[in-house]
Design brief:
- The protein is α/β, with parallel strands linked by helices.
- The chain folds into 2 domains: 144 residues, Aspartate Aminotransferase, domain 1; 247 residues, Aspartate Aminotransferase, domain 2, CATH 3.40.640.
- Helix content is 39%, strand content 12%.
- It contains 14 helices and 12 strands.
- α2 runs parallel beside α9, α3 packs parallel to α4 and α11 packs across α14.
- The chain is globular, with a radius of gyration of 22 Å.
- The two termini are 31 Å apart.
């Protein structure tokens, strides 16, 4: 076994799962845990202060994404926002139809929601993606039927970083609606992974609903946003109060909302500079990994069609879970896929949908960089990773060469 270093570093390379809270975000939130703790629905000063802070946060978010404050619905998570979009639209527009268009590589917050709707008689069209995980905008438009009420396609994939042509799809959808004199179908995108690195201007994206959460952008966990274009009606999933335009009952998470607004503001301000920095880290790691044989980059090449902080790599003849656990012994934290399915031993549904063989999907690791990562951390990883791969391959009963699946290289 590879000897452990005298001092084990802590190297966090799983920022696609969740991020460390920015101290500036926590500083904004702290007063609302302590002195400004009022219920925003209360009429006295303490309540009015909390309500005013929520309104300020709503205006901040709206300005960043080029929307109106009343378009912003605060939720309890990105998953809830995705569910709210899918279930909210379908329940409010049943008279129009029961057909939904999506892709097989969506987050499970969307996939499980649409699968659940099948029980109520909905038909789901899963558009194919290419070997890089990209959907064709023409395929989206061709799949629309008179009874299609919702299209849901994620902005950037959480597992292998492919950036969908959301603006292009949105433009083509506008043409379709105009030609058919209809407001349907509505267009939703999950932008949770995109929020730190891509533009969020909803007018340029031409979306009707957009999901963001706090935990992926150095903000708090347990808070999210659903952008809802003016005139688009949804039915609430949580009832019992008049909060959030009567669309999401429950006492608002005031500190979380304040923190989320600040996090979006900070990440969008630093977006271009930070995107370049983490892309350089991705390129640096990918170059260093070339000393290991039989590896493959999953998803698009490092560049415009890929999130700059995402590197998903297959190590053939190695179980991804074993590799992850070995790296953890050296203080390196990464992922075998999306965080929400980390307890599953099944290979990534995303990589399988891209046509990768079972053994490719099972041997994949996702390295995702954040604002605190450095080249020295990559050097630390590379000091041990090649030997760990070698040890695990010696233990593997089956040897599969990359030439066997040359079409995936």
């Amino acid at each position: 076994m590879l000897p452990k270093p005298r001092k084990i570093k802590s190297v966090y390379l799983d920022n696609a799962a969740t991020t460390k809270m920015d101290p500036r975000v926590f500083a904004c939130m702290k007063p609302y845990f302590e002195n400004k703790f009022g219920n925003p629905s209360a009429l006295y000063k303490l309540g009015r202060e909390a309500n005013g802070a929520i309104n300020d946060a709503r205006r901040t978010v709206a300005q960043i994404i080029h929307a109106l404050p009343e378009n912003i619905i605060f939720t309890g998570s990105g998953t809830e926002s995705d569910n709210m979009a899918v279930f909210g639209i379908t329940r409010a527009h049943l008279a129009q139809g029961r057909h939904i268009i999506t892709t097989p590589i969506e987050h499970h917050a969307v996939l499980h929601a649409v699968e659940d709707l099948k029980k109520d008689g909905f038909e789901i069209t899963f558009l194919p993606v290419d070997k890089n995980g990209l959907v064709n905008s023409n395929d989206v438009i061709k799949a629309i039927r008179p009874d299609t009420i919702l299209i849901s396609i994620m902005y950037a994939n959480n597992e292998m970083g492919a950036i969908a042509p959301i603006a292009e799809i949105g433009r083509e959808l506008l043409k379709y609606r105009k030609a058919h004199n209809t407001v349907y179908p509505f267009f939703h995108t999950d932008a949770c992974q995109a929020a730190s690195y891509l533009e969020l201007d909803v007018e340029k994206l031409h979306v009707d609903l957009l999901t963001i959460n706090g935990s992926k952008i150095y903000g708090p966990k347990g808070v999210g946003i659903l952008y809802l274009r003016r005139g688009v009606k949804i039915k609430p999933m949580i009832v019992g109060g008049s909060q959030e335009r009567k669309l999401r009952a429950s006492t608002e998470n005031v500190p979380g909302i304040i923190g989320l607004a600040k996090a979006i503001e900070l990440t969008q301000t630093a977006r271009e500079k930070e995107s370049k920095r983490v892309r350089d880290l991705s390129l640096y790691l990918w170059k260093k990994l070339q000393i290991i044989s039989d590896i493959k980059l999953n998803g698009p090449e490092i560049g415009e069609k890929r999130l700059p902080n995402n590197l998903n790599v297959t190590f053939l003849n190695v179980e991804g879970e074993a590799l992850l656990l070995y790296l953890d012994e050296y203080g390196v934290m990464c992922s075998t896929g999306s965080a929400c399915t980390s307890e599953s031993l099944e290979p990534s549904h995303v990589l399988r949908a891209m046509g990768l063989p079972y053994e490719y999907a099972h041997g994949s690791l996702r390295f995702s960089f954040g604002k605190d990562n450095t080249k020295s951390e990559i050097d630390y990883l590379i000091k041990y990773l090649p030997k760990i791969v070698e040890i695990l391959r010696e233990m593997s009963p089956v040897k599969i060469g990359i030439k066997k699946h040359a079409q995936y290289k």
